[in-house]
Amino acid sequence: PGREEIARRLGADDYLIKPVSRAALLGAIDALDRPVQSVLVADDDPEAVQLLARMLAASGRGYRVLRATRAGQALALLHSHHPDIILMDLVMPDMDGYQLLAVKAADPAIRDIATIIVSGMMPDHGLSQGTSFTVVQRGGVGLDDMLAYISTLTVPDRTSGK
Fold first, then answer.
1. Which residues, listed in sequence order, are joined to residue 40 by a DSSP beta bridge?
2. How far is 149 from 143, CA to CA, in rounded Å?
3. Among positive and negative, which fits the CA dihedral 26, 123, 85, 88?
């Protein structure tokens, strides 16, 4: 599935794959179509937190940035400061991002806080099957190429019996 579909399935507004450019980060925030003044950055890697905070500061938009290196800490900051958005990784030591998303979704006090996942990996929690398939090829995809791709995906593998 594409990143929009993955984000939707996880209950997030967007899903960005690391490394993230400042333009991609700000574009994802702008796509929320709501005012954003405060941002919580939650990642177990302090360098990743620092990098995202620098990107936000360099934007010149005056964001107030909160930082968390553990999901439990992020949850506490969501409640105490109620930021406009959380940028979060899925891999954290005390509670992973999937658990944090579930707790957030179940809590009426914080469920409406926008969420952008910023992760170095694609999620594996049953999200590997999508509703669409995209082929990108330099120079375009001709009919013969497309038929070969479809054939590869639909013809049983005669060597393995599948």
1. 66, 86
2. 10
3. negative
Neighbours of 156 (CB within 10 A): 8
Contact in structure between 43 and 118 (CB atoms under 8 Å) = yes
Helix (H, G, I), strand (E, B) or coil at 7: helix
> Among 1, 4, 2, 24, which Cα is nearest to 14's?
4
C-alpha atoms less than 13 angstroms from C-alpha of 149 in its C-beta half-sphere:
11
Q: CA quadruple 42, 48, 49, 53: dihedral positive or negative?
A: negative
| CA–CA separation, 88 and 13 (whole Å) | 11
Give pLDDT tens digits for 91-133.
Answer: 888 898 899 999 999 999 999 999 999 998 766 544 444 455 5
What does pTM read for this prediction? 0.75
> Which SS3 state, helix, strand or coil, does residue 53 take?
helix
Q: Which residues contact 147 (CB under 8 A, 6 or more apart)?
A: none
> From the CB of residue 5, how many other CB atoms can be counted at a distance below 10 Å?
14
